[in-house]
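ok so for the tutorial part 2 we go from a plain amino acid sequence to predicted structure tokens. step 1 is just haveing the sequence, like this:
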Amino acid sequence: MSTQHELCPECGHLGKAVGRRTVESLLRPEIRGSLQADDGFWFCRTPGCSIVYFRADSARSYTVDDLRVRVGQKQPGPPTPVCYCFGHTEEEIMDQVRDTGACAIAAEIAAKVRVGDCACETENPEGTCCLGNVRRAMKLATGDEGAPSIGAARSKAGRTGLWVQAGVLMTALLASACCWLPLALVGFGASAVGASAFFEEYRLPFALLTLGLLGVAFYLSYRPARGSTVAGVSGAPATAEDCCTVAGDSGPSRLQRWNRILLWPVTAGAIALLLFPDYVASLIGSAPTAMGREDAINLLVLPLSEGDELVERPADLAIELGNLKSVALSEVLPGGHGLRLELAEGDPLQAQADVLAVLQGQQVIANLVPAEWIRIPVTGMTCEACAVTIADAVWRVDGVGGVVVDADDGLLKVLAENEPFLLRAVADAVVATDYGIGPPETPRSDFSQDLSGLGCCTVDDLQ
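step 2 — the prediction. this is what the tokens look like for a chain of 463 residues:
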């Protein structure tokens, strides 16, 4: 923070620190002997103020008359020096711009700086590189006063890089919205009608846009310096403080380093979002399915009420029924609300009798329902997340013993009793998740026809 001692004693404006070498080299020879301190000098840049150098702890100051050169900021009128090392003036720049429409003076100065001819410390009253003043004069001459400095250009590029990275994540979200958006909407109880189909149509364009923005982000974060030149020559205009710095040696700015740090997790996140429809099922867990042999004969053992003993110990009952020779497979339905039995080849009626005998011996009261795989076309599915959503909804329908959803083929397979009321319940469950359905394919198996006259069976029927 500046103090009052850094203020010019004549105009009261803030001064700029300069070294003794600068002051000593620019004072007229007959005045140099008055210098006593080694440092603590300040340069006043205020136009119209006669003081050029002053000290905070001394009443002694030096005016424009004490210097051996004209001070461009304080002594208006031609010639107005802007480059003290090589003798260029503001008027020279104006004439060159007027005659040619451009000015090559800055490039000429930069070329001389590269070979070490710069003597700004002893020739420029400010003690810094003249190229900043030259470029400001060029901007005034060409009317381009809004051109940024190197620091501003780097800052702008860094901010642009951050916005591009944000765009990468946004477009990646949109590219995978066909998958995650319906799940989110249904999860919050909102309607997802048409959302999946709409975003699926634009998935490829959004994915390509994501990859394009990702390439731009890498370019902005890792692009090399624009040649091994003096800063400001092949890039943005330089300021007085950085115009003599070689751009190739400056390295990335702080904001650019942050861009590089953030870019890698952004890249990982974008790739994860783009591939989200392919692995979402493994993340959220697919609903349990039961397929077995599609042509097999299946029986569903369903309890009469939630308080039945079957609900309390379905696993033990499944093991005992699985030991029957007439039963090829016995498994507990999701939630433990029943069993699915796949019968072995042979007499299905005898198999049914064997099962009922076990149920009677265990004092289990249940319905024994013949079931078959019913195919129902489903429209609107685009990925595994759709399949998971539909399967989860159908499993909640009482009387369903198996669910298989194929998102690629747009097909739902349900293992259930071939009854209209049950098929209607399944259809309602699918529609409730905002997907469409087609007419079901319900082939009646011979076993279903054989048992159609028996209806639902309980243990009491054998007593």
